[in-house]
Amino acid sequence: MKLEVNNSKETIGIGKSIAKYLKPGDVIVLDGDLGAGKTTFTKGIAKGLGIKRYVVSPTFTIIKEYKDGRIPLYHMDAYRLDDGSGADLGLDEYFDGDGVSVVEWSRYVKSELPAQHLQIIFKRDDLKGENYRTLEFNPVGDHFKKMISESLNQK
């Protein structure tokens, strides 16, 4: 399934819609170019989970934890793990833990990802507008297929 968005408010809104269906142990992977909207989408998930803290990209810290919502949010940026060092971080403990894991730049930790997850690919098209994006949803597993069907059909 693909959705087109024209601004960050719409991107945040989609994240909020999906957050209603998230449960502990869910893993969402976000892929796309720099500035494509991955962190903006994660801000929507955080809002949907009731997290009050300001969400920023964890590029230099690699993992940011937000525990003040309905369930914890573990926001990861694997961009700096292009050497395959993701296994050293114990990502499986996050993936199997008490919260939702959102992983930006998942290709750098592909071998660490659980079999069932939701992948969202963000594509920019500056010819259609500075803030225009296409979000492509690739759910792997029945839980995520149902989540996308229900959450996006409410929009």
Automatic annotation (TrEMBL):
<keyword id="KW-0479">Metal-binding</keyword>
<dbReference type="Pfam" id="PF02367">
    <property type="entry name" value="TsaE"/>
</dbReference>
<comment type="similarity">
    <text>Belongs to the TsaE family.</text>
</comment>
<dbReference type="InterPro" id="IPR027417">
    <property type="entry name" value="P-loop_NTPase"/>
</dbReference>
<keyword id="KW-0819">tRNA processing</keyword>
<dbReference type="GO" id="GO:0005524">
    <property type="term" value="F:ATP binding"/>
</dbReference>
<dbReference type="InterPro" id="IPR003442">
    <property type="entry name" value="T6A_TsaE"/>
</dbReference>
<dbReference type="GO" id="GO:0005737">
    <property type="term" value="C:cytoplasm"/>
</dbReference>
<keyword id="KW-0460">Magnesium</keyword>
<protein>
    <recommendedName>
        <fullName>tRNA threonylcarbamoyladenosine biosynthesis protein TsaE</fullName>
    </recommendedName>
</protein>
<keyword id="KW-0067">ATP-binding</keyword>
<dbReference type="GO" id="GO:0046872">
    <property type="term" value="F:metal ion binding"/>
</dbReference>
<dbReference type="GO" id="GO:0002949">
    <property type="term" value="P:tRNA threonylcarbamoyladenosine modification"/>
</dbReference>
<keyword id="KW-0963">Cytoplasm</keyword>
<keyword id="KW-0547">Nucleotide-binding</keyword>
